[in-house]
Amino acid sequence: MALSSLVSARPSLLPIAGRRVDPLQPDSANSLSCFRRQLTQGQVFLKFRWNRASYLGSPSRLCSRVPAGGGASVGERDDEGELGEVSVGEDSAAFELAKQSILSWVYFTGILGAVLFALNVVWIDPSTGFGTAFINAVSRTSNSPEVVLLVLFSVFATVHSGLASLRDAGEGLIGERAYRVLFAGVSLPLALTTIVYFINHRYDGTQLWQVQGVQGIHELVWVASFVSFFFLYPSTFNLLEVAAVDKPKMHLWETGIIRITRHPQMVGQVIWCLAHTLWIGNTVAVAASAGLIAHHLFGVWNGDRRLAVRHGEAFELLKKRTSVLPFAAILDGRQKLPKDYYKEFLRLPYLVISFFTVGAYIAHPLMQASSYRLHW
């Protein structure tokens, strides 16, 4: 990033957490002064002030090394002598085993077991749950599986995106953990119902093409599906926050997959949908893909809006050097990849994803058999 984009005649404060604070006094009379404030959560606030009356020489580095977001160096020169970009976000998919608490993961295991038990009793089990009654009510809206599937997607998308949009207000009323429980408790049954209905009716539509016997198509679909899971949004990896063991946060990610696209979940979903629509080749698959892609495209706009509200100027800076379309910011020079960029993917979460994706493929017959037993 050019130095001119970092400094201006008017002071500018770039907060990691999106809240403005009073800057500390400058520690020197340099023309470009760097201030930092360490918060209790380890967040760092950076501010650059330009003194137009002074001459900016060529110091080896302008600021000390600070853990801005994921620990990236700030204001340092690279090998070519150019100033590095200011990190305003967090390091994606970072996982340090030494910092993990065994007790937290014990809590996570217990919560996961309790959630699955409650989901089975309250929703899945036809004798006690409401899932069957819900799917029967939706199915009565039309004899077309495509229409029913789109209705299910609409209900899920409205609830999921609606609760996400109300997150700030909801967390203010009942707290971060309680709101996460509410969000998951409502979204999870609706998502499960939609997935099961799709599995059970995926071959009920009108066949538009048939390429399953074409050589190489199966391999293409498999590779595309595998790659799509590497576009999961980095917050998905924070399982302790997902389960509300740790206090949930609205993170501003900056490294890893975010360098490629600011909305990796949308890109991954599009890849997955195109691959499975190609393989199935009927109207049900087209309807499912249309619903999923539409929901994620709305999430692009809504996600940017929510991040702008929460993180303010920091997000605006991040937005300028990232893109929605994959690789667009890299190709037009707004995103500068570090030489060791590949290391941002050599992390435990991506190893787990690799095993999970292969395991899910192997478990396809088991998932299909489980769905068929529900008769949804």
TrEMBL record:
GO terms for cellular component: chloroplast; membrane. It comes from the Eukaryota. It is found in: Membrane. The keyword Transmembrane applies. The chain crosses the membrane at residues 105-124, 147-166, 178-200, 220-240, 348-367. It is a multi-pass membrane protein. Keywords: Membrane, Transmembrane, Transmembrane helix. Residues 148-367 form the NnrU domain. Gene3D superfamilies: 1.20.120.1630. Coiled coil: none annotated. This is NnrU domain-containing protein.
